[in-house]
From TrEMBL:
Lineage of the species this protein comes from: Bacteria, Bacillati, Actinomycetota, Actinomycetes, Kitasatosporales
Name the record gives this protein: VOC family protein
Feature: compositional bias, Basic and acidic residues: 1-14
Top-level taxonomic group: Bacteria
SUPFAM superfamilies: Glyoxalase/Bleomycin resistance protein/Dihydroxybiphenyl dioxygenase
One Pfam family matching this protein: Glyoxalase_6
InterPro entries in the cross-refs: Anthracycline_SecMetBiosynth, Glyas_Bleomycin-R_OHBP_Dase, Glyoxalase_6, VOC_core
Length: 265
């Protein structure tokens, strides 16, 4: 895991290169309470977004879009989880590639107002992700500052076959971590690290299965953990130092898990 940066400067108006993580979105049962939680934790403000999939808002940090929150349809019994979206120049072709490589497409491809065209699918291990073709809305407009997404990491049973799936669909190159007891692959795009794949074997949670986790940048992980608890969230893995910074795994009041990352000073 590392602190990836955008392929383009936030102010240059350029879309994300195909394969780049370009958005994170959360579908919940109580959007108002969720907005209150993340607004207090990260300083987000909100404005209405596309409504094709139901009520939806875009979260803004200092006026720049960083994430989306929507209403989970009551007839869908799905896990409450942050979902990363990957940029595509042609969502329909990417959706076909997902299917031909053993994945599935559960939603779309479909047009979403002026935000572009998207699809939501899962890889062969069952981890859910999105694909986004962007004509106007550029996706996450800022990274590397407190409250913004910093990294996306896949936890799955083993890294090799699943990493190959994403490499084939999105054109990544891989860089395995050489360690006898740690199965981890970093996927690169044009020489830049963009996502990580962690093969956790039997440690993959039975109640979740393979899944993506989004890291959000914070100024101080320990303070952010205290804030999560104060706001009604949970601490799943206490703050600890790693070679990438100080990290903690937490969950919001509806159970959506995410990680807090304080980069090394």
């Amino acid at each position: 895991m590392t602190d990836a940066r955008r392929s383009a400067h936030p102010d240059d108006g350029a879309p994300h290169a195909p394969g780049t993580p370009c958005w994170v979105s959360l579908m919940v049962r109580s959007p108002d309470a969720t907005e209150e939680f993340y607004g207090a934790l990260f300083g987000w403000e909100f404005r209405p977004g596309p409504q094709q999939l139901g009520p939806y808002v875009r979260a803004l940090l200092d006026g720049r879009e960083v994430a989306g929150i929507g209403l989970l349809p009551p007839d869908r019994h799905l896990p409450i989880a942050w979902t990363p979206y990957f940029a595509s120049a042609d969502v329909d072709r990417t959706a076909e590639a997902v299917r031909s490589c053993g994945g599935t497409i559960g939603v779309g491809p479909l047009d979403v107002a002026d935000a572009g065209r998207l699809a939501i699918g899962s890889d062969p291990s069952g981890a859910v992700f999105g694909v986004w073709q962007v004509p106007a809305h550029l996706g996450t407009a800022v990274t590397g500052v407190p409250g913004a997404p910093a990294w996306n990491e896949l936890t799955t049973f083993e890294s090799a076959s699943v990493a190959k799936f994403y490499e084939t669909v999105f054109g990544y190159d891989e860089e395995p971590v050489v360690c006898a007891d740690f199965d981890y692959v970093t996927l690169h795009l044009d020489g830049r690290p963009v996502v990580g794949v962690h093969g956790a074997g039997g440690a993959v949670p039975r109640d979740r299965g393979p899944h993506w986790t989004t890291y959000f940048t914070v100024t101080d992980t320990d303070d952010a953990v205290d804030h999560v608890l104060h706001l009604g969230g949970q601490v799943l893995d206490p703050a600890r130092d790693s070679d990438r910074g100080r990290v903690a795994t937490v969950a919001d009041p509806e159970g959506a898990r995410f990680r807090l990352l304080q980069s090394p000073r």
